Amino acid sequence: MGERHHQLCISRRGLLVGASVLAGSLALPGMAGADSKFPLPTGPDLTVLITGDAGTGEAGQRAVATAAKRICQAEGVSLAVGLGDNIYEDGAESADDDEFATKFEQPNAGIDVPWLMVLGNHDCSGTFPGSGGNPSKGDHEVAYHQRSRRWYMPARYYQVALPAAGAPLVEFFALDTVPVSSTVLQTDPHYRWDGPYMRQQRLWLDRALTASRATWKIVLTHHPYRNNGKHGNAGAYDGVTIGDYMSGRHLQELFEEVVCGRADYILSGHDHTLQILDTAGTARGTQQIVCGASAKPNGGSSLVTNPAFWQDFSSLGFMIAKIRRNTVTLDAYTVDPANGTALPAFTHVRQR
Fold this sequence. Notes:
Shape: globular
Strand order of the largest sheet: 4-3-2-1-12-13-14
Helix content: 10-25%
Number of helices: 6
CATH topology: Purple Acid Phosphatase, chain A, domain 2
Radius of gyration: 18 Å
Number of domains: 1
CATH superfamily: Metallo-dependent phosphatases
């Protein structure tokens, strides 16, 4: 009973925190060291580092972080995004797990900005690493928000509008896609695909997107809606088209019924690739970006089913988003793992 109460409080807190973060600031009662966190940016323009599937603590992650650090300094990056699988292979065991240091803080030292983080399947591992079968394990990453200057995950799902003053330039909506994309059945009724947690999250997202006054609306997820890498599209992940979990069919429904036509971008990881897809025409204006190659390369595997402006299925890398009032410019970089050098690979500009 005590554990269930804790999980319900965390879920309700997701709704409450969304309101406090909406203004571009965090006001969490009792948060230790709140004043010491790297501040959310306040300027009229925003330049953002995008990474995903980074949390190995190994050479690949460190090479990408080294390369990204140089670009961040040159471009004036003031915010970063981590698109899940933050702690490989099976997530954190507590909010004090030393893997937060070895797989996040130490590799990213010098990229001293807030990092908006989302949960991935490896962060919520059950019996098998990466299964997503124990969503409650993600609560350790929410709790770590109170212990880190750069890690921003005030709830399992949340929103951040920037800047705080005036009409926001951009609003980020960070989702928890694990309960509807696990490779095993969810045995806890709270986290079933049709359970209270996903119903609450859907209601929050629907209301938040409706209420948003931001020029640009960006949804952050681990699992992608559209994807030309080996995991494939939501609704047919890894070739599975039946069942309520592994296929991701209920996540596909969430994207198509709540997100598409209302958000400008979906930024996702999960596939260890770099993709700037051309989905706006078929997704009512919503463009899918996949950026999950920040530690582990894919090896070249692909299932190309969606039109793309550019994609790379074998390199390590990251992206930089330059968000301005009338344009978003996405710069994709590949990284030489031998020397941590960033190589400009592709630039895509989207006009408002």
